[in-house]
Amino acid sequence: MLFKQQALLRQKLFVLGSLAIGSLLYLVARVGSLDRLQPLCPIDGQFGPRSQDEIALRALQFKRGLLHEFRKGNATKEQIRLHNLVQQLPKAIIIGVRKGGTRALLEMLNLHPAVVKASQEIHFFDNDENYAKGIEWYRKKMPFSYPHQITIEKSPAYFITEEVPERIYKMNSSIKLLIIVREPTTRAISDYTQVLEGKERKNKTYYKFEKLAIDPNTCEVNTKYKAVRTSIYTKHLERWLKYFPIEQFHIVDGDRLITEPLPELQLVEKFLNLPPRISQYNLYFNATRGFYCLRFNIVFNKCLAGSKGRIHPEVDTSVITKLRKFFHPFNQKFYQITGRTFNWP
Ligand code: A3P
């Protein structure tokens, strides 16, 4: 009898406990997503008519769920028509710089409910073969989105490819251009590390960074080495400025995006005339990865792939000093043109 009563009591306690834990989890989920449940502010400027912007975020989140399905390729033509989904040309492009943090920037901006990313690098403007396929081909590469949303793509090769500024200008002369930069020497070493990994995978031999970055005949910085050339930001930017005024560019600090992403993202939201929607809740530091990762909601979060955040090889300090000295005047010019100063050595 006593045993039966004890079993009954245990059962009751179990049910009560489960209810308490369930309620707690529900509350955590609600609080966690509170900032994403505010009504969506109107998006100023060119990104869409007000009436469409006034969709409540709750409805938008529901739609984002659907969008996710569409992106996975599960949408029928009927669904696309019913939900007014369209494939829009990008209103903003992350044009570079390679290894600056372009993937992190795109993924983090995609946390914004009014932003839809093109997942793949499309290489439309820098690849002659793709470019010859025409603008409709490019548009069809874009993800489905709602008319009030903006599409963003990133192809870091755009920044350094001669023909690209004119081609983008021909598509949309008022497009917004994002450039994410890192301290030039670190960026060059990151660039080298990526190529090195590819060579190692194919069992190919490769030179040390020092040998590539410094010309053995002159002992000067080797400006023919692509990783060095890409880090001369001002040279590339000057080509772009022949087509676009500086106001159409926004420079993102890639070093700060690693350590303190939110303020950098808030500056981008402002530049894109988007209401501030990305919050601290959406970003959490993952000690194992050593980087910030993304939180979409209580169940869905993700870190960038392991190919982002590689360990760089040790580089001779005299080579680093030489490179930093070399980049210094170009950096000064870059600060002057962009109006954004970095503490690069
Ligand atoms: P490293 O691999 O040198 O560390 P890109 O996407 O343009 O190729 O840039 C890659 C760089 O993004 C990485 O360079 C890494 O430092 C940086 N990065 C910035 N934020 C990151 C994040 N949250 N997770 C992983 N990498 C990030």
Automatic annotation (TrEMBL):
Its main location: Golgi. The keyword Membrane applies. It is found in: Golgi apparatus membrane. The active site is at K99. GO terms for cellular component: Golgi membrane. It comes from the Eukaryota. GO terms for molecular function: [heparan sulfate]-glucosamine 3-sulfotransferase activity. The keyword Nucleotidyltransferase does not apply. Belongs to the sulfotransferase 1 family. This is Sulfotransferase. It comes from Anseranas semipalmata. The gene is Hs3st5.
